[in-house]
Amino acid sequence: MKKLFPAAVALAIASAPAMAADLARPAYKAPPPPPVYFSWTGCYVGGNVGGLWVHREFTDRLIGDPFFGQTFTTDRSTVIGGVQGGCNYQFAGGFVIGIQGDYDWAGNGSNGNNGLFFNNVNGTFDSKNLASVTGRIGYAWDRFLGYVKGGGAWERDNFTITFPTGAIANLSSNTRSGWTVGIGGEYAFTNWLTGFIEYDYYNFSNNTDTFFCGPVACVVGLGTNFPVDRKEWKNVFKVGLNILWGPGGGPGVARY
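Above: the chain sequence. Below: its structure as C-alpha cells.
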C-alpha cells in the first residue's frame, strides 16, 4: 500500500492537465442558417379589374361653320378588366427593374350629349380597350414591392355623332397612341402568387380627327367631312393578381 499510494498520486497529477483541457473545451454548435429573403427576379402573368375615368375635349375645326373654334367636353367612367405580363430583376439588395405589357377591355361607357357645338347634335362615345408597354423600377422590402412605371400607351374608342341634317358621322380612326405613368404596390402572398394595387394616368395628346358623314352633309353647304381637334385623358385604378415563375421559382418552388 505504501508503494501504491505515491504511484496513484503521481498518475492523478500527470492526468490533471488533460482532464482540465477536456472540461474547458466548449460543445460545438452549428451556425444559424442564413436569413431567407423573397426574390422578385423572374417573370409573371395575371389579370386585373378596375375603374376607368375619361375626360375628352372636342374643338370644332370645320371652316365656315358658325361654331368653328368652340370646344365641347365630356367626362365619363366605366369598368375595365384585362391581363398583364412581364419580367423583373432584383439587384443591389432591394432594387427591382422590369418591363410589363398590359391589355384591358372597357365596359359600356356610352353616353348621349346634346349641345355638341350647337343644339340637336347627339354624340355617343365608347371606350373599347386600352393597352400599354411600360418600364418599371421600384424597391422591395422582402415580400412588398413599391414601384413606379412609365411608357407608351394605345387606346381604341368608338365615337358617333348625329347631326341635325340627319347625317350620322363616324370617326375616321378609332385607334390612338399616347403615353402613361403610374404608381403601385405589390405583395407576395406565397412564393408564386402576388397581388397588386395600381393607379395609372394616360394622356392622348391633341390631334385632328375627321368624322365622315357619308352621303348626307354634316353641316348644310359644308360637305360630308367634319374635322375636330381631340384631347383625351384617362385615369385608371385597378387591382389584380400575378402568378410568378422563372429563376426565383414558381408554383410549388421556393423563391429565395
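Strands lie at 42-60, 71-91, 95-106, 122-141, 144-162, 168-171, 175-188, 193-212, 225-245.
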